[in-house]
Protein: GNAT family N-acetyltransferase
Organism: Cnuibacter physcomitrellae
Amino acid sequence: MFRLDLGPSASLRPLEIWHAEEFATHLDRAREHIRPWVGPAFVTDTVEGAAATITRYATSAAADGGRLYGIWVDDVLRGGVMFVSFSAAAGVCEIGCWLEPAAEGQGLVTPAVNALLDWALIERGLHRAEWRCRADNVRSAAVAQRVGMRFEATLRGAWLNGGVFHDKQVWAILREEHLALRAG
Ligand SMILES: CC(C)(COP(=O)(O)OP(=O)(O)OC[C@H]1O[C@@H](n2cnc3c(N)ncnc32)[C@H](O)[C@@H]1OP(=O)(O)O)[C@@H](O)C(=O)NCCC(=O)NCCS
């Protein structure tokens, strides 16, 4: 099975339909922590809801679109990263992430996002990878900055969540910028 080590006890693996119960259990630990920051469709509260999220990404992946990956620490699912969107034709993808509270502050997501950037921008040859977060999501913006993305814009009132229109930041990195960073 595909797995990429993120450290001594952490790994990145595809999050697939046979993980639905495990994903739902993880969401029980993560739900209120991620609710302000991620799309409502991702914040499910049943095994069926968790399975629907995985199925949505699997359908997208089958068309070379979005993809979903989990981060396991000591074989417990603690969060993940995803291609929110992925278009080889347009040369552009968007990357997202989430963690349950206990897994924050351990440097798990940054190497996982770098792995997705390597695959999208180097292996698949896409031109641009984007990151979109609520403008007050400091930890999310810090991830974008740590992987070398540049802050490009604030989209005013662009994201409706919890009945409020939130400002949204756009961060991005281009293929040549990522290659230069990887070359050191
Ligand atoms: C966004 C989110 C995934 C960021 O998590 P994170 O733990 O801050 O990010 P990383 O996993 O990359 O870890 C970096 C942190 O680990 C620390 N760290 C510890 N060991 C590290 C290591 N070996 N390498 C890098 N960082 C390390 C860093 O100092 C940093 O902590 P700090 O910001 O307190 O200084 C998390 O806050 C979250 O899930 N938020 C809610 C959901 C969300 O906002 N999703 C994004 C929607 S746009």
In short: The mean pLDDT is 97.
